[in-house]
Design a protein that fits this description.
This protein is α+β, with helices and mostly antiparallel strands. The chain is about 40% helix and about 20% strand.
Length: about 170
């Protein structure tokens, strides 16, 4: 009986978590669907968002010399990505980011993806501590300490080069 009770409780815990991940809501300005709150990569393959993600991911070719260097610098790095599925910069940079981390061998478990509305609110996720002014914002941590940020778009010629600058200075 205890086992059945435990399994039932775990089901509701997991089901409750699943409902809070990859939530879709209507954008107040456009009326179109947007992601809100805690997300994972799977959310980007939702039919409402898949075109931008799939094209951006498959067409991006990161600099392989930079990728080799990132592989050496990636230890103990965690990333918080705050994006807007309504935002053109997010539609461009987030797929590129995922292509880079895949090639550099950074695990999805080291990434926290949060989607916000136009007011930079994350639904059930409080993003106020991240001080988000523009999206996407990529916040890089090593051993719990913020190493740097990329806000909106890379400051160099390519996103992977910005990652390398942050990773190498945070080591």
């Amino acid at each position: 009986m205890k086992k059945l009770f435990f399994i039932t409780i775990m089901f509701f815990v997991v089901a409750g978590y699943a409902q809070q991940t990859n939530q879709v809501t209507a954008d107040a300005q456009s009326g179109k669907e947007i992601l809100i709150g805690q997300c994972d990569r799977q959310a980007l393959t939702n039919p409402a968002f898949a075109d931008a993600y799939n094209v951006g991911y498959s067409s991006y070719n990161p600099d392989q010399e930079v990728i080799k260097k990132l592989k050496k610098e990636k230890k103990n790095v965690q990333v918080v990505v705050v994006m807007g599925s309504w935002c053109d910069d997010s539609k461009t940079q987030v797929p590129h980011f995922y292509k880079i981390i895949d090639e550099a061998g950074i695990k999805d478990s080291d990434i926290r993806l949060i989607s916000v509305d136009r007011q930079k609110k994350g639904g059930d996720v409080d993003v106020s501590s991240y001080d988000i002014q523009r999206v996407p914002t990529f916040i890089f941590y090593k051993d719990g300490r913020e190493m740097g940020r990329i806000v909106e778009s890379p400051t160099t010629s390519a996103l992977e080069k910005d990652l390398l600058l942050i990773f190498s200075h945070g080591s």
